[in-house]
Structure formats: C-alpha cells, structure tokens
Automatic annotation (TrEMBL):
Protein name: Glutathione S-transferase
Annotated InterPro entries: Glutathione-S-Trfase_C_sf, Glutathione_S-Trfase_N, Thioredoxin-like_sf
Domain of life according to the entry: Bacteria
Keywords: Transferase
Amino acid sequence: MTYDLTIGDRTFSSWSLRGWLMLVCFGLPHRTRMAGLYSGTLAADLADLAPARTVPVLRTPDGAVLTDTIAMAETLAERHPDAGLWPRDPHARALARSMVAEMHAGFGALRSACPMMLAHAWDGFVAPDAVQADLSRLTALWALARARHGADGPWLFGTYSLADVFYAPVAARIATYGLPVDAAAQDYVAHTLAETSFRQWRALGLTRHYDPMPYAVPLPQRPWPGPAPLTATPVDHGTPENATCPYSGLPGTHLLQLDGRTFGFCNATCRDKTVADPAAWPAFMALL
C-alpha cells in the first residue's frame, strides 16, 4: 500500500511541496523520486507516468496516475477517510475546500512576482499593488478560518489539514520576500516554517546547489527567517560516536561535527540534510 511520488527540485517547486506534505504529514506510506526541472530531463523522467507533464505526480498502489495536487488531495482523502486530511466538521470542511480551491487557482500576482525559493530570504523587496491585493485576500481567508474553526490548535482549522498543505508554499513566499502581513498572519507563517516536515523538505533542498540560482533577484540576501539551525559542519576525518546511520542503519561513511562531537551517515545526502538543519531530524537528535 505504498504511493510513488515524483517531485521537482525542493528549493523551488511549490506544487511538489504540496504533494509531499499531504503524504508525509498524514502518515501515508510512499516512495519519492526526483524529476529534473532544471536539468532538462523532465520529459524523460515523466515518460512512464502518462499523461503527466508537470510535477508532482502521484501513482497509487494500484497504478492510477494523478497529475494535479487537487486530484491528489481528493483521492487521498477518499482512500484514507480516517487520516484527517480534511476537517471533520462539515462547515469547516466546506470552507477548507473553498480555500484550497482558491489557492490552487488564484493568487496569480503573488505567484508571479514571488516564486518560491527556500535557500535564503531577500532584503528590501517591495510588493507591487497587485501582490498587496493578493496578500489582503490571503490574510482575510486565514483570519476567517482561524476565527470560525481554529480554536483547537495553531493551524488554519485548529488541527493540521489539507488547507495548511496548500498554503505552506505561500507562507514560505511571505518569509522569503519579507511580505507585509499582519501579526496573526506572521504567527501562522512562523508556525509553518517551524513545522518539522517543512524543515525537513527545506533541509533536503539545501543538499543541492545551483549555479546560477533560479529565481535570483538583484537584492541583498538575508538569513532564512525560520528557526535558526544548530551549527554543524561536514568533515572528512574523524571517529563517529555512532556505528550506523541514524536514518538507514547502514555503516556511517560520511561525517559531520557538532559541538565537538562527530557523527557518521551512510551517504552524503543523509549527512548534508542533517548539516542543513540538525534539529529537523528526530532520529539524529536522539543521537545528539
């Protein structure tokens, strides 16, 4: 009962982030593979997933191919009615579905002017009037959901739902570009950036490097506004405290140091995702 999810580059692919979160955050078993958005291999990578031509793509355990995040969300909710993808209250569920549909189809000015880019933040971005209008609509929707249905937790409908999945990329855009929103919306953005699965997605994206960087703008960079990571460093030599990788259980061949301690990982990706944000990985923090 394992889903196959094909995604694009994590630092930039907002739609891929949605597909991944709806599997990870609701505990649905899956395998992930990458398609080359920026390497020129996208068409070849999707050749066995007709009719797909964009990412993400979800293949169900029985072989059905879904090529749109709305279709993925509804199919997963249908197949896993007890997983809590949508709010249980019918009025909350109706509003959540409406908000997800509007996010999926709207906010074009915000998407165009502020592509998702998770490597760092930009300093001094000035939001055009059309983006300001999108932000006003966005924050009004968030406030409405929180006022009507958010009493049971910090998410839009109290507990985490597909609404939070679909709005996570736009929360990231607000953070990256320093977009002006009210205090309540800033709190929601901060909560999104601190959520473990989002931090893991970003850390995995940081294991890849780009030259030139897609979606660069002529502005000074500033540090990512999410939780400040612990300072870890990759090293070539040392004796690790752990005999096996905390993720795979395989022998540790790639090393990092943190607070003068050395830890081993089975490959460069396992090490580098941990270097990017050690506290995002509970298995590593258990070692630490």
